[in-house]
Amino acid sequence: MISEFDIIGRYFTRPARSAVLGVGDDCALLRPRPDRLLAISTDTMLEGRHFSAGADPFKLGHKALAVNLSDLAAMGADPRFALLALTLPEANESFLENFSRGFFGIAERFEVELIGGDTTRGALAITVTVIGEVPQDFALRRDGARAGDDIWISGSTGEAALALANLEGRVQLSPAARAACEERLHAPEPRVELGGRLRGIARSAIDVSDGLLADLSHILEASGVGAELWLDKLPRSSAIASCANTGIAQECLLAGGDDYELLFSAPPFKRAEIDEVSGDLELALTRVGIMVPGEAKLALRDARGEPVPLPRKGYDHFA
Fold first, then answer.
1. What CATH number corresponds to the domain at position 57?
2. What is the pTM of this model?
3. Is 317 part of any domain?
């Protein structure tokens, strides 16, 4: 059986490109670029909680880094470095080979350098820490929304949650819809380019990881404003739009997690710039509501402007 040091050396050691010192010492050594703030985020994925036993290790490697890159995107930060802590029940070489291919596949796309981490034995758990940089005064934060701002969403929400509903037997999807939804669940695409382009355009931003309503509420609470969200304007994928169980589809749309789209606010005079970004990136950006003065409360409205009862807001590890 291979040792801990074999695992690190064989599967997770790459030459340092921009780090002063990378994998192999007690600490990595980094040199931040001038006039940049560091943006740092950590996420943990646990077998049985975030993914099922026997999950595709290639997709696990991709997702473990992708969900962290999504946090950097929400701050408008450029990805630079990552640390990886792996807890493994055994040193399964097939798992390690495929996991590392998935991890480094997305790392290379976004020029992320793995600079360290840890391995230990136990129930399967994956923890990734990412480090990015953002120009001073241009970080996208949750507390910047202002009354009168437009509310925007990239892509569409709900497909990852619909995949789970299908796996749990609560809905039945066509083969094409199931494949599309499972791809969103297992191989999310972090909106890194979009986050960078929104610097100087958006006033606030967050990635949709816990559900659209829950994550919008985080912006409202941090910014001290309210919001109106327009149900009929929310973009819907074909899988959501064609789902026979409209109640579950709407719950997934509004409260499903694991979407990793960017939800952001911007003043109305930025609409043309946002449309230009959408065209450049070939990514749908949809105006779905407005920030309003007053308490940090969210009103969901139908096409006639009538209030719609809010479903549960989103995912909570301890609820």
1. 3.30.1330.10
2. 0.91
3. no
